[in-house]
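User: Could you go from structure to sequence for me? I need the amino acid at each position, not a summary. Structure tokens:
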């Protein structure tokens, strides 16, 4: 059955789009930098990734405030606003004993939620993410990226797509540009990236009680491997798995290996179909 989009409402009235599909224990994907739920469920590559996970899990995806099918009138660009989105989806659906799958900029958000709601988070999986936003690149690179987002968002920029999907074909750049156009405005994307660079969860790592798996590609330009290594070293008893490659998005490239690691971590009796 094809996944559908539904809505929940935050306590301040903001409507959030979400989708829940599959079977088995719950895997929640906190919204990362920018989101486009309709794209995730239409694009063959990303949909295949989530549907393979849905063979073993009940997958929960959502659009953050300002993005995708959720209300777009976002003016509060704070971590607290993103936490409210995640809390609203989890509480509205009555979710318990969940596995959090924090990808990219959703890693710090996932870490915060895991330390504040340890009774809900059964396991934590972090992919391609970071401890401190400022440590993901030189200040000049970060400033240039934010300027590029503001000027080239949604136009199929080779420079922008090569950061997230190095070596992308023209077709892949066009697909990524479509994702950008339909996810949010250039200004919202830029402000959310500025928020990402301000994040720092270094003081929370030792407080994580959930069993944790850290996954990272060794050539990632958005989240350098050093950040993944630091996560694995400082989170108590974390497992660390490194993949070859430089593509930031997990559903492109060696996605089968990533899925297999997730399945074995959550339940080693499961296999990829």
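Assistant: Here is the amino acid at each position, in order:
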């Amino acid at each position: 059955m094809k996944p559908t989009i539904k809505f929940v409402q935050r306590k301040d009235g903001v409507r959030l789009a979400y989708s829940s599909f599959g079977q088995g224990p719950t895997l929640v994907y906190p919204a990362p930098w920018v989101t486009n739920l309709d794209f995730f469920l239409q694009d063959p590559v990303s949909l295949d990734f989530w549907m393979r996970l849905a063979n073993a899990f009940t997958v929960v995806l959502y659009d953050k405030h300002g993005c995708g099918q959720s209300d777009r009138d976002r003016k509060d660009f704070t971590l607290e606003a993103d936490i409210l989105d995640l809390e609203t989806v989890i509480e509205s659906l009555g979710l318990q004993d969940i596995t959090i799958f924090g990808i990219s900029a959703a890693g710090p958000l996932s870490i915060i939620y895991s330390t504040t709601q340890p009774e809900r988070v059964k396991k934590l999986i972090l992919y391609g993410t970071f401890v401190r936003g400022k440590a993901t690149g030189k200040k000049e690179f970060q400033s240039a990226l934010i300027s590029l987002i503001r000027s080239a968002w949604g136009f199929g920029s080779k420079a922008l797509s090569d950061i997230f999907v190095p070596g992308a074909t023209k077709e892949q750049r066009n697909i990524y540009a479509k994702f950008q156009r339909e996810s949010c405005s250039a200004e919202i994307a830029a402000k959310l990236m500025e928020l990402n660079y301000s994040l720092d969860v270094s003081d929370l790592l030792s407080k994580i009680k959930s069993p944790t798996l850290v996954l990272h590609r060794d050539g990632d330009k958005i989240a350098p491997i050093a950040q993944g290594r630091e996560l694995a070293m400082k989170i108590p008893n974390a497992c660390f798995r490194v993949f070859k490659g430089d593509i930031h998005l997990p559903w492109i490239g060696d996605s089968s290996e990533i899925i297999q690691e997730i399945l074995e971590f959550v339940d080693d009796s499961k296999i990829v179909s």
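One structural detail worth keeping in mind: Residues 268-273 have pLDDT under 50 and may be disordered.
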